[in-house]
Amino acid sequence: MIALQGPKAVEIADKVVAGAADLPRFHIKEIELFGAHGYITRTGYTGEDGVEIMLPNDKIVELWAALLAHGVTPCGLGARDVLRLEAGYLLNGADADQTRTPYEANCGWVVKLAKENFVGKEALAAQKAQGLKEKLTAFVLKSAGVPRAGCKVFVGAEEKGTLTSGTYSPLFKGIAVGYTSADVTAGTEVEIEIHGKRVKADTVKTPFYKNRV
User: Fold this and answer.
1) Mean pLDDT of the chain, nearest integer
2) 119-156 pLDDT tens trace
3) Contact call for residues 38 and 31 (beta carbons, < 8 A)
4) How far apart are CA 100 and CA 204, in angstroms?
5) Boundaries of every domain in the chain
6) Cβ–Cβ < 8 Å for 44, 3
7) Which residues of 165-178 are buried (b: 16+ CB within 10 A; e: fewer)?
8) What is d(CA 166, CA 149) in angstroms, rounded to the nearest whole number?
9) How far apart are CA 5 and CA 106, in angstroms?
10) Which of 26, 119, 142, 163 could form a disulfide with 178, with the two C-beta atoms 3.0–4.6 Å apart?
11) In this model, does residue 99 exceed pLDDT 80?
12) Superfamily of domain 2-74
């Protein structure tokens, strides 16, 4: 699979895969490309518009060459991780896992308590009624530094939580998310401990960057 993401992604994809531009967001369709059967989806994990093209392994090199011929710039997981964090997308296994509830991860919109029954309904209803003790919180550093998973978050002398994801954003300096006590809300100034040094940061709401998709 090759993911093609960015403002011109769909335009370029349409030159390689006929009809790519007509595919609605969050849809998938079968394709025939380079003599092989495959699939194209219009989703993404970057906050940008784009597509994912899936072909057999022996045809991926041809697809790669075709995309490069149209001016596509290759990038790796590091670039993708910056983009997904700017967009406020969670990383499974880090920002969300089986130890956290949707409410704690700021994903309460996926919970439908009015539904007749589902696994965990009673626990989620109780948590919503009682209020959260911890929640996923977002930060922007106020000076130089690169926050990373595992960094501690402080308000004054009190440790409030731990980062689960962090990076350097070309747009916003250092950005990060992590689980803190629920009293750390947007507007709260905190300190994040990076390599033994505390760096001031503002608590903000996500996404850090809102794109058009």
Assistant:
1) 96
2) 999 999 999 999 999 999 999 999 999 999 999 999 99
3) yes
4) 21
5) 2-74, 86-204
6) yes
7) bbbebeeebbbbbb
8) 6
9) 25
10) 163
11) yes
12) Probable tRNA modification gtpase trme; domain 1 (3.30.1360.120)
Helix (H, G, I), strand (E, B) or coil at 185: coil
Strand blocks (E) in 90-205: 134-141, 152-155, 158-169, 173-181, 189-194, 197-204
Q: How many CB atoms lie within 10 A of CB 114?
A: 5
Distance between CA 178 and CA 194 in Å, rounded?
Answer: 14
Q: What is the pTM of this model?
A: 0.90
State how far the Cα of 151 lies from the Cα of 156, in Å rounded to an integer: 15
Q: For residues 147 and 190, is the Cβ–Cβ distance under 8 A? A: no
CA distances from 128 to 2, 90, 92, 184 (A): 40, 21, 22, 18
> Which pair of structure tokens corresponds to residue 9?
């992604």
Q: In 10 A of CB 89, how many CB atoms? A: 19
Q: Token pair 């390599």 is at which residue?
A: 195
Count the neighbouring beta carbons within 10 Å of the beta carbon of residue 49.
20
Q: Can you say how many angstroms the Cα of residue 174 is from the centroid of all Cα atoms in its chain?
A: 16
* Residue 25 scores a pLDDT above 80: yes
Does residue 162 register a pLDDT over 70? yes
